[in-house]
Design a protein that fits this description.
mainly alpha, four-stranded mixed β-sheet, two-stranded antiparallel sheet, 27 helices, 5% strand
Length: 764
């Protein structure tokens, strides 16, 4: 039976019951999978010995090697288990292939050597009782040869050449030996048969004929079931949407008519004026991140330099890519923090004292984290920080969690301070509203952001790789793709309410539906990142099955976006005399809908199927999805929020429709050029090369050198995105130094706004 959820809002308690049920079930499954990964992750033996009894390396060497691999930035140069960067080799696949070749040569070549090499690599000679792994003498001999190869060709090469790391990246032979011990251990897990199973610890990844690694039956079966889930789910969703769309309340909103207020009519609170500095910092970081992205991409086109200059000596590839990824996360998060602070007084109708001070204090803390973490990463990669301090104030080196643990803790603290700012601003409103109404949903979603980012602290550079990867992807997937998505959904819903396009009742129902749809597939779907990094087969089965459902809400959002736009167009009919002040803010939201379906949905599902991920993980098809989803969805949304707020900071004479229009088209066309002229086609060629020549070959620098013409094709797209950031830098600088004047506003808990009246006045 419907019950009151606050002023003018009615909803059924079944919404909450359904959402709670899906969350409980989803996290219960994740809890079970966490137990399995701790129990069944590949063992790290105390010693690895040859059959003749000599110690090759120890478990401490493996763990220290993993830490060095990460803190020297090798995961941002190449990858292991397909996770990491794309210029260097996948060290797991590359070592495994070279190991098989060395053993084949040692056994004299021919069919008999093929069979013996395959049999010895597949055999699991780990003794859990003594915690000792025994290798054949050929495996042990190959390790010594490959240690020399990686030390000379990757870690301590004499010149930059085409490596991207620069000369003498890691000079200490003891460190390089431990790193190769870690790489060799990952290759062992990729070939040795998991006890009680017919496949390796990595579900037979990477594909390698010399070892006998081929697709498992689980990969084929669960890929097939994933497609059935996708098609059936979309069909069911569209049927329900057509049958019950009136429940959302679209038709009831058609009668609403609005007058769009001129931004100059609006008085801003002190904290809202302070957020202009956030967006100025956002624009500068966006520009820096775009420039670094161009440098990273150029390494693929001209592996030995930058238009003839040896860039790797000054800015090696791994450092450029680390900063590129970290700045992306920083400017996106900063934009969302600023938008949350900006909207809080509008939602509450008032602002308590001290909010401006807290807002600037948070900005200062973020500045310390950004500058400190970037400097620490550079110092760590260049060997300027030694010992236990490297992962603390230097770099942890996990992709997307590269910053040192000290900076990670500070960022979590900053996010908590942000929640305090929001709570202080919303407290009176929260007390007056039902716990399931939009203001509470806004605050709950904000609380999830520091909570799920903090989970990344469970991944330490010495933690067993499969276990650390499990927690790392809670951040990469659950934090970014689920709960950050939830917060942005609530923010966008509130903006549509403020625009007068929909009522609070309709927006609340849409938010509930989105939460329900995302939680069905998104929570357990986290596992689709970990098919081949040492997790048991059940992680692949459940990850494939549930991640297919992640595309379903994206389909719904596409339909929903068009409904919003059509409704908004009808609202403006007959009211041309009232100019709509947020055309380009809404246009960026339209771009979010487009890239959400294409980048996150289509390109995401393309690589999520185990049968495809087996061949393409760590190729440019992964980068294709990452750019389409991260920049296309979160980047465009962050810019939309920036443009939305700029209308209230700037004087009328300082606002430029032409500049924002240029930015919109440059960013979107530039991203489309990157995707369709470079990332997607080169990814398809890599996929074909994996099938033809092996995964190790498709990830080699030689492959990229054979296709430099496609890499050069990316240049116009990079240039367009860089140019598209310049108007944003210019306008945000104006918003700080030429903010429009207004009457002094007392910083006190007194009504400032009428709720939902910042942008519009409702007529009729």
């Amino acid at each position: 039976m419907p019950q009151s959820a606050g002023p003018n809002v009615e909803f059924s308690s079944r919404w909450i019951q359904s959402i709670v049920l899906t969350f409980v079930v989803g996290f219960a499954i994740l809890g079970y999978l966490a137990i399995r990964i701790y129990r069944d992750s590949p063992p790290v033996p105390a010693r690895v010995v040859s059959k003749s009894g000599q110690t090759v390396f120890t478990g401490e060497d493996i763990r220290a090697g993993q830490e060095a691999f990460l803190t020297y930035g090798l995961m941002q140069y190449g990858s292991v288990y397909g996770h990491g960067a794309y210029l260097g080799p996948d060290f797991t696949a590359d070592y495994l292939h070279r190991l098989a070749v060395e053993m084949h040569r040692a056994y004299g070549g021919g069919a008999a050597a093929d069979e013996r090499t395959r049999r010895e690599l597949r055999e699991n000679r780990y003794d859990p009782a003594n915690d000792v792994l025994t290798w054949t003498d050929a495996q042990a001999g190959a390790f010594e040869a490959l240690h020399q190869h990686y030390a000379a060709e990757v870690m301590d090469r004499q010149a930059s050449g085409g490596g991207g790391l620069g000369p003498h990246a890691i000079q200490d032979p003891a460190v390089s030996r431990r790193i190769v011990a870690f790489i060799a251990w990952t290759a062992w897990t990729a070939a040795a048969t998991r006890p009680g199973r017919p496949h390796s610890y990595t579900n037979n990844w990477p594909p390698e004929d010399l070892v006998g690694n081929r697709l498992t039956q689980e990969a084929v079966v669960w890929s097939t079931l994933s497609i059935i889930v996708l098609l059936g789910g979309i069909g069911l969703l569209l049927t329900c949407f057509g049958r019950y769309s009136s429940v959302l309340g679209w038709h009831a909103d058609e009668s609403r008519r609005v007058r769009f207020r001129d931004p100059s009519e609006i008085s801003l609170t002190p904290s809202q004026r302070a957020t202009a500095w956030y967006f100025a910092v956002v624009a500068v970081m966006f520009l820096a991140q775009s420039l670094l992205g161009g440098a990273v991409a150029h390494y693929h086109a001209e592996t030995g330099g930058f238009f003839g200059y040896d860039l790797a000596r000054l800015l090696p590839y791994n450092l450029a890519r680390t900063w590129h990824l970290q700045l992306a996360l920083f400017w996106l998060v900063a934009s969302f923090l600023a938008a949350g602070i900006f909207l809080a007084p509008v939602i509450a109708g008032s602002e308590p004292g001290g909010q401006r001070f807290l807002t600037f204090a948070l900005l200062g803390a973020l500045f310390v984290v950004v500058v400190g973490s970037l400097a620490g990463e550079a110092a760590s990669y260049k060997g300027m920080i030694q010992g236990s301090a490297r992962p603390v104030v230097g770099a942890q080196g996990w992709e997307y969690l590269d910053l040192g643990r000290f900076w990670q803790w500070l960022l979590v603290l900053g996010l908590v301070i942000w929640c305090v700012i929001l709570f202080r601003g919303l407290r009176q409103k929260l007390q007056a509203e039902h716990y399931a109404n939009l203001p509470h949903l806004f605050f709950y979603s904000a609380l999830s952001i520091p909570l799920f980012y903090a989970v990344g602290l469970l991944a330490h550079p010495r933690t067993d790789f499969a276990i650390a990867d499990f927690w790392r992807f809670w951040v990469v997937h659950l934090w970014v793709e689920d709960f950050l998505e939830l917060f942005t959904t609530v923010m966008v819903a509130y903006i549509f309410v403020l625009l007068g396009i929909v009522s609070a009742k309709t927006a609340t129902r849409v938010v509930y539906l989105d939460i329900l749809l995302y939680s069905v597939g998104g929570v357990v779907g986290t596992m689709h990142h970990m098919y081949f990094s040492g997790t048991p087969a059940i992680h692949m089965a459940l990850g494939a099955f549930f991640s297919a459902a992640e595309v379903i809400p994206l389909t719904f959002l596409t339909v929903e976006a068009w409904t919003f736009l059509q409704l908004g167009a009808r609202q403006q009919e007959g009211a041309e005399q009232y100019q709509f002040p947020h055309r380009w803010g809404v246009m960026f939201l339209v771009a979010v809908g487009f890239w959400n379906f294409l980048g996150a949905g289509v390109f995401g599902f393309l690589i999520n199927l185990p049968v495809i991920s087996y061949y393409e993980i760590g190729t440019q098809l992964t980068a294709n999805h990452a750019h389409g989803a991260m920049m296309g969805v979160y980047g465009m949304l962050a810019v939309s929020l920036l443009v939305f707020c700029l209308r209230y900071y700037l004087r009328a004479e300082d606002w430029s429709e032409r500049m924002v229009s240029f930015s919109f088209w440059a960013l979107n066309l530039g991203l489309a050029w990157m995707v369709f002229a470079n990332l997607f086609p080169i990814g398809v060629l890599q996929l074909a090369d994996v099938v033809t020549n092996g995964y190790w070959h498709a990830r080699s620098i030689e492959f990229f050198e054979q296709h430099t013409y496609i890499e050069w094709m990316r240049l116009p797209g990079d240039a367009a995105v860089i140019l598209g950031t310049l108007p944003l830098v210019y306008l945000t600088a104006k918003s700080v130094f030429r903010m429009r004047p207004q009457r002094p506003l007392q910083e006190q808990a007194a009504p400032v706004f009428r709720e939902a009246q910042l942008l519009t006045e409702v007529r009729g």
